[in-house]
Specification:
The chain has 297 residues and is an alpha+beta fold. It is built from twelve helices and eight strands. The protein has two domains: 185 residues, Roll (Endonuclease I-creI), CATH 3.10.28.10; 84 residues, no CATH class.
């Protein structure tokens, strides 16, 4: 199973609050294959997304989409609202009225509703490449107006994407790993956010190793392994809003490592404003790693 397929399975399994369900459902429909009076349909290669979408539409609108599966080598699932009356009911559910291009801001009761709407858009038309191969996230949109509205909404939430116009629509994309991390976090994909962070750290460390081939390989390996564990732990604590609640001595050690990711313990001690020994600093960082491992059990 591909990285993006696993990601969409995780996103489809996110527990959605009641206030967010209309925004999530509308996000999937609006960015699906067709969204108009004549046709409302979602086409996806992900069975879990298709089935969760059908359940969500029934829960929100009391309408059951017709779900079919086609294709031989690669199954494709199609969920369609077959009744015109049902389509009109869905299109009229938002105060802005019937439109194929408008982002329904009246459905955004809370910030979490915005996040759910973006998650729905991604489930319908988004893709993220395997970070082991390439940093790239994208939304494939039906038209430029809808692309502009989604880009503006994402920018309001701190995620800036570039736009490319195509013959049959527009593409929003980014190759910035930090923007992809923010997008994953916003959509609620915690596991894949940490996976991306781990991959990013490993790539950085590997690059540093290549630039330091003349160093003693055993010492480098030991330093790299310790640095990965420490930085992974610090990034996790920061992402989960636990970093700044650490005791002062642990917080200062964490910030010192965060600001100097590739430094040795000896170099960190020299940079510290405190009078630190290598063993003392190592003890503090080991406590941070132990806390991270305990939280992830």
């Amino acid at each position: 199973m591909s990285f993006c397929a696993q990601l969409k399975n995780e996103l489809a399994s996110v527990k959605t609050q009641n206030c967010c369900k209309p925004a999530l459902a509308y996000g999937i429909m609006l960015f699906g294959r067709s969204f108009s009076v004549k046709k409302i349909s979602l086409q996806t290669a992900n069975e879990k997304v298709a089935r969760e979408y059908c359940n969500l539409v029934f829960e929100v609108y009391k309408i059951r989409p017709a779900l079919t599966c086609g294709g031989t080598l690669k199954p494709t699932y199609k969920a369609e609202i077959t009744s015109e009356a049902d389509r009109l009911k869905i299109l009229a559910a938002s105060d802005f009225g019937i439109s194929e291009n408008a982002v329904p801001r009246d459905l955004f009761i809370k910030d979490c509703c915005v996040h759910s709407f973006i998650r729905g858009a991604f489930l319908a038309c988004g893709n993220i490449n395997d970070p082991e191969k390439e940093y790239r996230a994208e939304f494939n949109l039906k038209n430029e107006k809808l692309a502009d509205e989604l880009a503006f909404l994402l920018a309001e939430n701190g995620i800036k994407l570039r736009k490319i116009l195509r013959k049959n629509g527009a593409l929003l994309y980014t190759k910035e790993s930090s923007a992809i991390e923010d997008l994953l976090t916003l959509m609620g994909a915690g596991k894949h956010t940490l996976s991306l962070i781990d991959t990013k750290i490993l790539k950085s460390i590997k690059n540093n190793i290549n630039r330091a081939r003349n160093c003693d390989s055993a010492n480098i390996s030991k330093t790299v392994e310790a640095s990965i564990k420490q930085r992974t732990a610090i990034d996790y604590l920061e992402k989960t809003d636990r970093l700044y609640s650490l005791p002062q001595e642990l917080l200062s050690a964490a910030l010192l490592r965060k600001e100097n990711p590739n430094a040795t313990l000896k170099e960190l001690c020299a940079l510290s404003l405190e009078s630190l020994t290598v063993s003392g600093l190592n003890h503090r960082l080991s406590k941070i790693v132990a806390l991270y491992e305990q939280l992830n059990k």
